[in-house]
Amino acid sequence: MVSTEQEIEEQFAQLQQKVGARHTEVLKHSDGDQFAVEYARLVNVTSKLVEFEKTIPERLAEPDRRRSERIVTWSWRGQAAVGAVLIALVFLLDRSTWWLVLLVPHFGGTVAGCFQKVDAEQHRDRRFGAIGLHVVALLMALISLSVISRWFIIAAAVGWMLVAGSSMDSTGADPKGARR
Predict the structure, then answer these.
(1) Is the pLDDT of residue 46 over 50?
(2) pTM of the predicted model as reported, rounded to 2 decimal places
């Protein structure tokens, strides 16, 4: 993170120096054609500085976003694999196939979550959802293997609602599309 901040500060300082140099050139030429040329250069460099300034928050958040993207991607992929194993265990352990009513949607949800976009604005929400997914998947495993009571299905459903809520976009209308 320090290197990112230093890089941004260096680029910002370079642009400020360019604006200062152009401003000095404009002041040397009070009027005439050379003034218009230098003024146009000043405006050009200043607009580059303003555009760079607008991107600073996103540039500062990029390392955390990348970390969140890795956490989210591997959490959802891992839990999709756990869901597939739980479905296979229904058949291997000769459990009731009614468990598939619970496990297939869980597996489908985790597979769908593998493809969500982790953007700079909501990467922390996505990370929270991915970590919460581990709790939900643990509940699903314990319930389907009859380690804990079936009443915990309610807790798993509430957990899925929280995970889905953190995986929704800012309007809450649709899950995010394909990853970057």
Answers:
(1) yes
(2) 0.65
Taken as a whole, the chain contains a residue count of 180
Contact 39, 73 (CB under 8 A): no
Do 171 and 180 touch, CB atoms closer than 8 A? no
Longest CA–CA span in the chain (Å) reads 91
Residues facing 168 on adjacent strands: 175
Neighbours of 69 (CB within 10 A): 20
DSSP 112-158: HHTT----TTTHHHHHHHHHHHHHHHHHHHHHHTTSS-GGGHHHHHH
Q: What is the pLDDT, as a whole number, of residue 80?
A: 92
Chain centroid offset of residue 148 CA? 33
> Other C-beta atoms within 10 Å of 35: how many?
15
Q: How far apart are CA 172 and CA 165, in angstroms?
A: 7
